Each structure stands twice: as C-alpha cells, then as structure tokens.
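> tool_call: predict_assembly(chains=two)
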Amino acid sequence: MNFRKTSHGSEKENIVPMINIVFLLLIFFLITSSLVHRPVEIIERPFGLSDSNVEDPNYLFITGSSEIMYLGQTGEIAWDLIKNNELTTLTIETDRNLAANKFISLLNKLSDINIPNLEMIVSDPTNKPRK
Amino acid sequence: MIQLNTISRRRRPSLTPMIDVVFLLLIFFMLVARFGVDKVIDINLPSALGQNAQYEGAPRLVEIKPGNIVLLNGSKIPLDQLSNNLSELMPSPNALVILRSSAEANTQDLLDVLLYLKSEKITNVSVLERENEF
C-alpha cells in the first residue's frame, strides 16, 4: 500500500482573495466615510429625544470650553466663514457641559446671521449613564 | 570571451509595498469612519429668543438650575411640576414664558427644560441672555 503523504508545506498560500477583500473593504470605507474636521477636545453630546435625522450635515462644533470650530477653523475665522457661506442649514454639535449662558449667547449671535434652519445634535437618552 | 546571453527574465514587480499602503489606508478609514445617523432637534430662533413675542398676564420667569430644578418666579420646584404651576399663571396656552439660565446651569439643563416645555405644548418661550458671553 502506498502511504506516502502529500505535503503542502512547500506550496505558497494564495493571497489574491485576501487582497480582493481588503480592496473591497477599502472601497467601502472610502465611499461611506466623510471627513469632517473635528475639534481635538471630545464633545459630549446632550441627551434628548428626537425623531429627526440629520440630512445635510454642516457642522458647527462647540466644545465644553466654548471654543467653536467650523470647517476646521476656529474663532473669528470660523464666524466669518459661517457669515460668508450663506448657509441654509447649520447643525450644531455642542458639549452638554457648556454653560447654558454661553450657549444662549451663541444662539443670539447665530440669529444675527439669519440661517433658516438650525438644528442641534442630541444623543439618545437611553444611553445616559445611571447615577 | 564575451558572452552575449540575451535571455532576460521578466521580473514581476513586488506587490508587498502596495499591499502595505492599502492596509494602512484601510486601517485609517476604519478608525475615522462613524456609522449611524445623528439625531437632531430643530431650533427655532425667532420664537426661542422671543423676537416676535408679546407679554400678557402674571409674571412667568423660569430660572434654570442644575439637576432638573427650576425657580418659577423665585420659588424652587421640580421640573416635572413646572407645567402645572405655569398653567395657573398663563392667560392662554400660547402665552409667553420667559426662561433665564443660572450661572451654574449647563446646556443639558437648558435643553431638558426646553424639551420638557415642548412636550407640554408650551412653545412660546423667550430665553434671556445674561451678558455677551461669546
């Protein structure tokens, strides 16, 4: 009887299927992701119930230390960009720990720019950590 | 003696650097990608800031304190009792309510009060600005 083993050890693994999958994943992430300049400081979104989804994202970030960021710019440059871009929608992502008075002042400043649709990003209250 | 051996093997370019770059790109996009749709609430600035509002009836000044506590005309009440107390002071359901934030309150406290009032169908709200903070 012939008990000779067939050895596959010397054969090279075919890496083409793996490369195909990696390329497919890369194309998927390239298509689905949109690069948004975010502040370095982490923004903790406020909790609130909402049925509306963000449709035309045009983000204005406000950090807990009341720094604003729009299109990667901060401070007065960001304000100038908001004024000059003639926005129809502005999506505000603010930190829930920001002082309410500062947020009200910001809204007052935005009301002078006359942006028709202002919206604020909220987190689902069910994700709220229990005290 | 010179050998003129013209047989030359074609060397296949190495795929390894390309695969390295592709992997790096893949890892980058996997890390920066965010999935899921953001939920938003609409902010109606003219009514929120009371530009078109007219005041009638008894004083209705709500001061927002941290931790779901509010002061209605200086009296401390829990947020969930605000609607009942306000309705006694309102000549009509559309009457204006004035909100003011205390220095300690944060955006979450303000949003909680605004969403509570909206859920209680009190939509004519004016928010006072203490000073120019920005």
